[in-house]
Amino acid sequence: MTAYRYRALNPGGKLVKGVLEGDSERQVRSQLRGQKLRPVEVVVANRQAANQPRFSLSLFQPRISVAELAMVTRQLATLVQSNLPLDECLQAAAEQSRKARTKGLLLQVRSRVSEGHTLAYAMGEFPLVFDEMFRAMVTAGEHAGFLGPVLEQLADYNEQRQYTAQKMKMAMIYPFILVGVAISVVVALMVFVVPELIGIFAHSDRELPLLTRALIATSDFSRNYALWVLVAVVGLVIVARRWLRLPARRKRWHGVLLKLPGVSRLVIAMDTARFASTLSILMASGVPLLESLRIAGQVLTNLVLRADSAVVAERVEEGSSLHRALRESGHFPPMMVHMVASGEASGELETMLQRSATNQERELEMTMGTMMSLLEPLLVVFMGAMVLMIVMAILLPIFDLNTMVR
């Protein structure tokens, strides 16, 4: 059976959309009429994407969130371990989904599986949802006959990704709100409040204090050029993003990040933790070491570290041990290198890689927590200092006037 996307009119004349399975377009239309719907359009589910121009193909392929992917993977793992046929597992998971996009995706995968293709092959038609690591693990699980446990590992991995990303976002919410409020308050004072208060000194023959003159100049600049500054900042961001589209330029920028104190530590910790975790899961799923290194290298967002991982894979292929290749690269954390060496010596490389990833993630979480704890009071102090300067710039001329009166 094939998955079809449809658009139809309900008895009230409202347009509805959805996905149905059927042997032919005619059968799907009959099903719709049986549901008292009048078909407007019925097409094969993946035909719409196939008919789009190549440059916009990625815009029309289905996408689902990491949380949704983790839930679907968990459901499939449970169903597969219940010894149900794979196409029935996909059908059941599709029926459980409340989102039409996810349901359509699973039904399209089920259609390919029903045609005789492997699950990994069917998932390969949706690379924006099922990345290379996901498909490699599914392939290994299908070949070795333990697809259920592999899907369980993938569900754990995606849930951990979602949890880490959510925790990072939650940690950044308060500082961003505080920065936004601070900037808004200062701009409002400079544009609306300060000109009214300083106006009383504008016609004075007495020379104003330096701080007051600086405040007046800043206020005038903010009123006359604030919009142009905002446009310039947005323009610079757009130009920088376009400039970084070329891999060579982006790699140079990533190299600069690795040389910045503080920033380099965070970048390396985030990327190498993801690398170690991915490599551990791939090897535990039965993927060969060289293939695991190649796939795990793709999860590195820093292009310099990604190039280093490719060199590591080449050295391992030439006969070097993994820990020696990682140490010679110069970018992977020493603790990770030592744990990999211990894992190679004891024959528990997958376990030691996972421990290394866990330790790095814990250290990264503590570092981020410390930075956020320091940033919040610093922002409060900065905001207070700005307001204090504005108040002092206004009060100093008033003090001078009081002195003249006496």
Automatic annotation (TrEMBL):
Keyword flag Coiled coil? no
Q: According to the UniProt entry, where is the signal peptide?
A: none
* Regions crossing the membrane: 171-194, 225-244, 378-399
Q: Name one GO cellular component term.
A: type II protein secretion system complex
Q: Provide the primary localization.
A: membrane
Q: Does the keyword Repeat apply?
A: no
The family line of this record is: Belongs to the GSP F family.
Name of this chain's protein: General secretion pathway protein F
Please name the taxonomic classification of the source. Answer: Bacteria, Pseudomonadati, Pseudomonadota, Gammaproteobacteria, Cellvibrionales
Gene (UniProt): gspF
